Amino acid sequence: MEKVAIIGVAQTKYMKNNPNSHDEMAFEVTNKALEDAGLTIENIDNSVTCTNDFWDGRTISCMTITDATGSSRVPTTNVEGDGTYGVLIGLMRILSGYHNITLVVAQSKGSIGVPSLITNAIFDPLYERMLGLDAVNSAALQARRYMTKYGITEEQCAKVSVKNHKNALNNPHAQLPLDITVEDVLHSRLLADPIKLLDTSPISDGACALILARESDAKKICKKPVWIRGVGHCSDTYHLGDRDLSDVSVLESAAKRAYDMAGIKDPKKEIHVAEVYDAFSYMELMWMEGLGFCERGGAGALIDSGFTEMGGPLPVNPSGGVLSAHPVLAAGLARIAEAVLQLRGEAGSRQVEGARVALAHGIEGACGQGHCVYVLER
Amino acid sequence: MTVELGDTGTRIHRSRIRLRYNWWLGKVMSRFYREIRDQSKIWGNKCPTCGLVYVPPKENCPKCFVRMNELVEVSDTGRLLTYTIVRYAVPFIQPQEPPFALGIIQLDGADTGITHILGEIDFGKIEVGMRLKAVFRDVREGNLLDIKYFKPL
């Protein structure tokens, strides 16, 4: 396979009530990513945008983002979903041989709507939607199932929140840098048992952009290209009751595809830093298992051992993760952006020393129905 | 309504989108809700390939991708696979005032779970694996909420 590199990244600061509009955020990250790559908009040959009509409040939101991303005169398409899938389309475009330098932009402004109303609309209107299911209470059903099956404790989930909010103290883009304790998480407001406020992510306003190029272009343009060495994605069935919500086999499948492509045999040893989609604290534990960092049910012991802390053998979410900033759609792209900064050695006070291989992960749908996994290398 | 957002130099315009939809249930879900409404009976369907019984029924097996034509009546009793107690209010979408309990219940004779409300239940005594029974409404409309909730058996 021809090599494709990420040659530019940019993020807004993630926050609640960002005074900038959708267009202002998209314009900001598009320009900053171009600046990061040392390019101008004339160098962009095609683009992929990631928006969602419900979060955007406009139907055919794919067409609303065109102007602010400089995409009005180039081939552009849209992914209605997480930014990791947008990168997948960009990667395939370049590998097709028909496209060159590719811009990927994802954005959302959670502040404009009521997240529970929007996530309720994920569900089948003839069935689960009538029960008031939304992102938080469906996650609670998954958390309970997972914790019951493997004996994972609320304290172990809380440790994820403590770790990631602490990591966010070193990330200027994060929305919720917090110095908190396990007790703080356990005593935070109960939303839907066993999920408490500090087990959840804040729905953020924010945007993220990446620029991709084939090897021949990347080597000319970029001093520190980060190579996409492997990618894999896979989805589970739609209805919650048709799945075993504790089962991570689709993530295992996505990860295996990415690892096989990248030649990774032992992910726990060969990956130096990971950015995963921890929309809820328990999810980071489940995703550790699906990504093969431990056996199924083993993530509680993994977090207890400090394995995924900064300074541990495999730091997970040095950025603070999705728990510290959750710009829906852009959140997976932000995982890739952080992985790129880590591999370039530009992650400042949260730098994982010697990181040469990184993993980035995005999810789609309720309770991680779909997963997209990247292996990146400097 | 347009309001100033602090001293940021930007304004917020408040509005609402109103949309109406007529959802098509499909033959299988139409039958499922008709049986609940008229007979107080819960039906699933069985995959001819993997043999799993889906409740609620599906047009095709999500795993084997074959049409499922064999309807199977299942019990109105089953066991709780997972649950939560919803303690926050969201306007318009919730079936009742919080706090209320939701669970996924595997009915006897089914291989999958049905997501529903748990009622007549002490929140402190909910346990995974507990036995539950469907309670049907007296007046029914042909939708999921014709089952009022599942209560402890």
Descriptive overview:
- The complex is a heterodimer of chains A (378) and B (153).
- Chain A has 378 residues and is of the alpha/beta class.
- Chain A has a domain at 4-114 and 203-221: Peroxisomal Thiolase, Chain A, domain 1, CATH 3.40.47.
- Helix content of chain A is 36%, strand content 18%.
- Chain A has 14 helices and eleven strands.
- Chain A has helices spanning 22-37, 53-56, 83-95, 115-120, 135-150, 154-168, 182-186, 215-221, 249-262, 267-270, 281-290, 299-304, 321-324, 330-344, and strands spanning 4-11, 46-50, 76-79, 102-109, 190-192, 195-196, 205-214, 226-235, 273-275, 357-364, 370-377.
- Chain B has 153 residues and is mainly β.
- The radius of gyration of chain B is 20 Å and the shape is globular.
- The mean pLDDT of chain B is 94.
- The interface between A and B is large, with 40 and 43 residues.
In short:
The complex is a heterodimer of chains A (378) and B (153). The mean pLDDT of chain A is 97.
Task: Give the arrangement of secondary structure elements.
The complex is a heterodimer of chains A (378) and B (153).
Chain A: E1 4-11, H1 22-37, E2 46-50, H2 53-56, E3 76-79, H3 83-95, E4 102-109, H4 115-120, H5 135-150, H6 154-168, H7 182-186, E5 190-192, E6 195-196, E7 205-214, H8 215-221, E8 226-235, H9 249-262, H10 267-270, E9 273-275, H11 281-290, H12 299-304, H13 321-324, H14 330-344, E10 357-364, E11 370-377
Parallel strand pairs in A: 2-3, 2-4, 9-10
Antiparallel strand pairs in A: 1-7, 1-8, 4-7, 5-6, 8-11, 10-11
Helix pairs in contact in A: 3-14, 6-11
Chain B: E1 2-4, E2 11-13, H1 26-39, E3 42-46, E4 53-54, E5 70-74, E6 77-86, E7 100-107, E8 114-118, E9 131-136, E10 147-152
Antiparallel strand pairs in B: 1-2, 3-4, 3-5, 6-7, 6-9, 7-8, 9-10
